[in-house]
What does this fold into?
Amino acid sequence: MPEKPILRIENLRKSFGGTEIIKGISLEVLPREVVVIVGPSGTGKSTLLQCINLLTRPTGGRIWLADREITAPGVNVNRIRQRIGMVFQEFNLFNHLTTLDNVTIGLTRVLGMKADEARRKGRFELDRVGLSDHADKYPAQLSGGQKQRVGIARALGMDPAIMLFDEPTSALDPELTGEVLNVMHKLAREGMTMLVVSHEMGFAREVAHRIVFMEAGFIVEAGPPQQLFEAPRSERARQFLSMIARSHNGADSPEDQRGRVADDATRKP
It folds into this structure.
């Protein structure tokens, strides 16, 4: 029997004022699947993630998490968000709290976990992202890559059914980008279901089960990485991937660039 999707999106639409940003998107994500969404800026990728996490309400269409429609009237939004982890472009940490407290605050205030249990869970998640030695530091004492890993640990602490990543490396330099991508590699190997908006083509090629190319609020093309990189069906996807390759590596060929980005993604912190 085919596996049921953990996330199902049907004819999703989102407008701001008179401008439609998401224009009838349908997408399914299976348990343990990694789906990477790529496309030009301003095409609706981040808005799509915000609709899934109910940070913004869709204008039309429906979304299911497992067997539950999360866009149905009267749904408990806070409870749904507990099951959908979200990692943002910016780190969104509380600067007055330690690393450990940033991870545990949701466990105690949202889940009602006792302080000792929350701290054990928080330390486990910090170890999971390679920050066990930084539990007592404050955000100002951390690098950008470390801050983003704290954000990942915070989301993981809620034991989500799926993790959403909204360009998690866009604010980082290449060396720190590798730290975050290493953690995401590890989560993929552990079987975490992930929906990732990113321009990190090396990560997409190595880790994604599927790549979704979006433009102007539509899904133009979707398929396994080999198809998108080697033989995209749409001319627009081919043009976009070639442009990304050139912008990342100057005059290098797309193949050379992809190999270099892949090496960066797998470098240990």
